[in-house]
Amino acid sequence: MRRLSCVLLVLAACALTFTNVTLGGTPLSGTATFSTTDTTSFTLDANLTGSTTTFVVTGFSVAGSSGAVTFGGSVAISGDASTSISFGSVLWKDGDCYPSSGAITVQKGAISESIAFSATTPTTGQVVVTVGKKSVPVSLPAYGSCG
């Protein structure tokens, strides 16, 4: 006799519409959708406009696990100057001052800057910053009490 197993996934989503909500004195309008399929990882998609600036968030994910959170996805900002910020599997463990893996990339016009985190970053504050084709190690400033 064969047994079949079924897994039930919970699908939940919340869509918000903003109409002239004021944030820091600037009216903000647009939409944001938050969704989850397992209640431990969430995805945000949004398109918000305030004054002359538009924020587009595409597939920004936050995934929680025991003692850690992982960020991924992108945010595009357009207006006077266009900028995009991409989070590539940035893993941040509870109690650490800095992430322990992944990268954050900022693209502003033709200039791209990437900050790469390693397993030693939380204890040393060392990251690798890449601008164009040049990569250099950088020490992040210490802050607060971590741990």
Describe this structure in words.
It is a single chain. This protein has 147 residues and is mainly β. It has a domain of 96 residues. It is 3% helix and 65% strand. The protein contains 1 helix and 10 strands; from the N terminus they run ββββββββαββ. The protein has a 10-stranded antiparallel β-sheet. The protein is globular, with a radius of gyration of 19 Å.
Q: Which structural class best describes the helix and strand composition?
A: mainly beta
DSSP strand tally = 10
**Number of helices, counting only DSSP H or I runs of 4 residues or more:** 1
Which bin fits the share of residues in helices? under 10%
In N-to-C order, the SSE pattern is EEEEEEEEHEE
Give the N-terminus to C-terminus distance in angstroms. 52 Å
Look at the structure and give the mean pLDDT.
86
Rg from alpha-carbon coordinates: 19 Å
Strand order of the largest sheet: 1-2-3-4-5-6-7-8-9-10
Coarse shape: globular
Largest sheet: 10 strands, antiparallel
Strand content: over 45%
Low-pLDDT sequence parts = 1-10
